[in-house]
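To the wet lab folks,

You asked to see what we're planning to order before we commit. Fair enough. Below is the target structure as tokens, and below that is the sequence we designed to fit it. If anything looks off to you, flag it before the synthesis order goes out.
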């Protein structure tokens, strides 16, 4: 399991029932996506919903 997967799993566990934190995490995720695009990385959307 890569670092990104570990962080994602921990964030999901930490924010599962806290709506305000969920909104913050979504905003952070959007920021990370933009940075990744700027740096030239390709993001593949996951089709698996847990």
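Sequence we intend to order:
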């Amino acid at each position: 399991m890569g670092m990104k997967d570990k962080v994602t799993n921990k964030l999901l566990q930490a924010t599962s029932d806290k709506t305000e934190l969920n909104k913050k995490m979504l905003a952070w995720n959007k920021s990370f996506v933009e940075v990744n695009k700027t740096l030239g990385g390709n993001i593949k959307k996951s089709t698996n919903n847990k």
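Structural context that might help your review: The mean pLDDT is 76. Helices lie at 3-15, 19-39.

Thanks,
Computational group
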